[in-house]
Design goal:
single chain; 173 residues; mainly beta; Lipocalin; 10 strands; 57% strand
């Protein structure tokens, strides 16, 4: 809350003015400070580039965008979308994550272009979030490290006869 103090054209407001000021401070809604949950610094749209490599193939450049949409005001719940494209590979990940008071993460994920999804477990420590996604014969580890307006994303996936590794650097738009 902000108050502007300046010269008054009226003199002698004395106790009445002080009471009015105290009442305004006491009655006025106080700002709610958001808890600094593990997802608090992610909100918004990010974009960048990196590399992706399927085992036995050449490394390719990849272009990505990420959208992080918090749910609630605590920084403990978030919806995310990560879309990446290279010359021969693309993926479109979505997820809904929730962190408990110990910053243990759970949730669900889906890969929209392939029509698959599964569960998420993980944890957050400082500026680093590590999640593990699974579904039947597929698993991947995703590590997000965020510093100011830059984020490093590392993906290591195994399943369906493929091993794919990606390393991406995103910047907040």
């Amino acid at each position: 809350m902000r108050f502007a103090f300046g010269k008054s054209s009226r003199r002698g407001t004395g106790l009445g003015g002080a009471m009015a000021l105290m009442l305004a401070v006491w009655v006025a809604p106080q700002p709610v400070l958001a808890d600094s949950g593990p997802f608090a610094s992610l909100q918004g749209r990010w974009s960048g580039t990196g590399t992706i490599r399927e085992e036995g193939q050449q490394t390719e450049r990849i272009r990505c965008t990420a959208d992080y949409r918090p749910r609630g005001s605590t920084g403990h719940e978030i919806d995310l979308g990560l879309r990446c494209n290279s010359d021969s590979y693309n993926f479109d990940l979505g997820g809904q994550f929730k962190a408990d008071s110990s910053n243990q993460i759970s949730g669900s994920w889906n890969e929209r272009s392939r029509g698959i999804g599964g569960t998420v477990i993980g944890n957050a420590r400082g500026n680093r979030i590590q999640i593990h996604v699974e579904r039947n014969a597929f698993a991947a580890t995703v590590i997000l490290t965020t510093r100011d307006r830059q984020q490093s994303v590392s993906i290591d996936s195994h399943g369906g006869g493929q091993v794919i590794k990606a390393s991406i650097t995103l910047r907040r738009n």
